[in-house]
Design brief:
alpha+beta; four-stranded antiparallel beta sheet
């Protein structure tokens, strides 16, 4: 009677339990991998968004400076390619405006992203037209990921009454 009662008892064998643990572990590893990839993508997105925002802001600031001041202070050759070392202007406070005639780079610390290095160049085309190029790069000390945004525009001034040089 006792042998028949034991054969009717249902349960997991040791092998079935081990197989279930292995299947569960594989599933957890796949979910963990998704979380890691998602976090890395989020970091890259933060860098891209911030560099684009800062480059756009710098370009807008350059467009708002009086034409004569911007065109009268062209950038030295290769100003856009200044290496990521040191810096001439720390643009972390709202009172400090690094975008001004005669200056061609700025650094800004962004929470969660790191330091964003922005360079720009102003190249005169003729007396009434200038070419402006802005580049912003971020680099995280921990992730070593970089993002870069670069924008260009041509600015012209044709109204002598508004202070533009005569053609």
């Amino acid at each position: 009677m006792s042998t028949q009662a034991r054969s009717n008892e249902a349960g997991f064998t040791l092998i079935e339990a081990l197989i279930a643990i292995v299947v569960l572990a594989v599933g957890l590893i796949a979910v963990t991998n998704l979380l890691v990839v998602g976090a890395a993508s989020n970091t890259i997105g933060n860098h891209s968004t911030n560099t684009t925002t800062i480059a756009t802001e710098t370009l807008e600031r350059l467009r708002n400076i009086t034409f004569n001041l911007v065109s009268g202070a062209p950038s030295p050759a290769g100003a856009i390619d200044v290496p990521l070392t040191g810096g001439t202007c720390d643009d972390n406070s709202t009172a400090n405006n690094c975008v001004r005639p005669g200056n061609f780079e700025a650094f800004k610390d962004v929470a969660g992203v790191g330091r964003v290095h922005t360079t720009w160049e102003v190249v005169p085309i003729d007396g009434q037209t200038i070419f402006i190029r802005v580049r912003a790069e971020s680099e995280s000390a921990l992730a070593r990921r970089r993002a870069r945004a670069e924008f260009t525009t041509i600015r012209s001034c044709t109204s002598v009454a508004l202070g533009c040089p005569p053609s």
